[in-house]
Amino acid sequence: MGAKNSSPVELDVIVEESVVDPTAWMIENPLAETFLLHDFPVKFMFLLGYTFYTGIKIFKSYGDKPASYKFTAMAMACTGGGLIVPIFLNGMPVFISNDAYPIAIGTSFALLHYFPVLLDVYAHSDILKAVVTVMYEVTRAYVVVLFTSSSAKVISASLFSYPVFGPIVCGAISGVGGAFMPFSKGLDPIKDGLDYKMLTAVIGATCYHIFMSTSLSDGCIEAKEKAPHSYDTFFRIDCPLSNFRVRAQKEKGLAMMKGGSISPGENYV
User: How far apart are the C-alpha atoms of 187 and 203, rounded to whole Å?
Assistant: First the structure.
């Protein structure tokens, strides 16, 4: 029997080109992994910082009120946006649906109520202020991104190919809703204009929603991770700058009052 002639078989070799992400450094670092709040222990720790920061404001404003009043005011301030927005979306308020919020609020309230010295420690410790403020702003950015993205999935498109103003309104309210709680405050929180928290919530919700809903995010690798991280970075940078401006204005006003340029009852800003 003769040997059969076999022709060589040509194999198509598929070479996969690795995609290089020039902005991978934004999320591939321990700091970003922490601020994105993927792990529940880290998220709860930041939530404690968020409620503690809010509790400081409540105890300074209502220090002479009964404990029940301060606790209720603190709970409403911490979950104001989480109470209003779910009602818009036919959902459950976060204070009811997420047990982590009542636990964090109760823990922060107990610390401030039974250990009032923490108010003085916070007032005199710049390091503690910085840490708590970062936790507050990162959590606030997380909440705004969460409600902006979730409302975009629920609200139907009308005039445009995607809902435009609905998710932006929901995201902005989630970041500043606590300032209007209880509703008896009316529009008093904005009678002197929008503060930095309101401005950052509106700007951040708008930029995030437009970026994620349009072709601006096309070609961006891990856009759902990088956009929120850019957002909380914006919050963390704007907060100390805004506080610095407010402190500078107060110091300027005190200097003018001491110099006799204005009377104590005048507005120097």
Answer: 20
